[in-house]
Amino acid sequence: MKTFLVLGAGTAGTMIARKMASHLDSREWKVVLVDKDEKHYYQPGFLFLPFSLYGEKDVLRPKRNFVPEKVEFIISDIELIEPDASRVKLANGQVISYDHLVIATGVDIYPSETEGMLDGGWRNNVFDFYTYEGASALGKFLKTWQGGRLVVNVVETPIKCPVAPLEFLFLADWWFTKRGMRNKVELVYATPLSGAFTKPIAAEALGAILARKNVHIEPDYYVGEVDSGANVIRSFDEREIPYDLLVTVPTNKGAEVISRSGMGDVLNYVEVDKYTLQSQKWENIWVVGDANNIPTSKAGAVIHFQMESVVKNILNHIAGKPLTHKFDGHASCYIESGFKKAVLIDFDYEQEPLPGSYPLPGVGPFTLLGESTINHWGKLGFKTLYWNLMLKGIEVPLPSEFSMVGKRQVASGSQA
Fold first, then answer.
1. Distances from the Cα of 262 to the Cα of 36, 183, 266, angstroms
2. How many CA atoms, within 13 angstroms, populate the side-chain half-sphere of residue 152?
3. What whole-number distance in Å separates Cα of residue 354 and Cα of residue 280?
4. Rama region for 36: left / alpha / beta (φ>0; ψ in -120 to 50; rest)
5. What is the Cα–Cα distance from 190 to 25, expressed in whole angstroms?
6. Are 165 and 174 in contact (CB under 8 A)?
7. Domain residues of the chain, as ranges?
8. Which fold has domain 109-251?
9. Model pLDDT, residue 108
10. Please, what is the Cα angle at 107 between 173 and 42, to 5 degrees?
């Protein structure tokens, strides 16, 4: 009996375990899925927790609800991956030898990487919203906060869902306006990027929304220290930004087991071929979701888009055939902008986000690089697709490959 082993039962791990169990002959293969806990979080929903738009029931389900009977599910932390021996040691003492391995261990925040971040202010007036605990604690704080200077800071990139800090600022503008206290709150965005986004056309469009909402951007800001005693952050080039409330996106890194196993880069991301998602060092290892180093967004929609090609390539490899399917880096992100509106961006490895309509030209119904109410409902509707289709192995009606259909070519600096 051969073993197909999946490490991590988040979005990517759950989906690929289910798909491989449906494709592989159970008389020849067993599919094993390993994760350290029972709780599955809908991570895009963390954004809404601080503003009381979502609660626990919206973002939390038992992982076992989404693991099919044909998959052996083991709850244990992972002690070590031994890729040269095709073997994994679990914290519970179990050793699993595999024929093919998929690493889907995701990313986590590492606030300890920034000097002073955990000293005194953490979860008092310094919060993250990239964890359930952090977003929930921030929500409690905001209910009684009387205003002041709110600074959103991204420590370094890459991060999960790179537009989420912008969404937080947009929703904060809406939240404080709704409560009649927007004039008591100063919003500041301190980012290591040179603008609102990594690509110039989208950066201009999103930067214009920040300006309209009176959000100050502090670009090229690399925080070196959080001084909770003085309530300031200091950059490596000695710029100080005072805050009353700091909402931080700490350093994002891959799982510690990747470092212990000597398999990753400095941020614990595993190097793969960006088109096949096959490890560059071990041909029977594949890395999906947020755990790899591909140059595209670490987001749920990207996992959906990459799943079709990676499954086909794995099956080809098992059958001794060439890897003929390519993931093009397709990413699609709804950006909640407040007041029941949102922006949609759609791009791939080669093409940056452009204005237009999606998925049909001139029809949409979704607007690219522009705010609309239908985009807002698309953002909220993704939660239903996630729980009821994606994780249950039901095909989501979204094309995996990027297309220029419906998009307008514009130059940076022109009106989108």
1. 20, 51, 10
2. 24
3. 32
4. alpha
5. 52
6. no
7. 2-106+255-318, 109-251, 328-416
8. FAD/NAD(P)-binding domain (3.50.50)
9. 97
10. 55
Question: Measuring CA to CA, which residue among 105, 163, 108, 160 is closest to residue 288?
Answer: 105
The span from the CA of 68 to the CA of 66, in Å, is: 6
Distance, CA of 188 to CA of 240 (rounded, Å): 13
Q: Which of 204, 227, 207 is nearest to 216 (CA)?
A: 207
- Give 61's strand partners: 40
Which listed CATH number (3.30.70.920, 3.30.1300.10, 3.50.50.60, 3.40.50.720) goes with 2-106+255-318?
A: 3.50.50.60
DSSP 101: E
pLDDT digits (tens, 9 = 90+) for 2-15: 999 999 999 999 99
In contact, 15 and 394? CB cutoff 8 Å = no
**Distance between CA atoms of 273 and 326, rounded to whole angstroms?**
10
Residue 246's pLDDT band, with cuts at 50, 70 and 90, is very high
Could you report how far apart the first and last alpha carbons of the chain are, in Å? Answer: 57
pTM, rounded to two decimals? 0.96
Domains 2-106+255-318 and 109-251 share a fold: yes
Closest CA to 289 of 375, 390, 403: 390
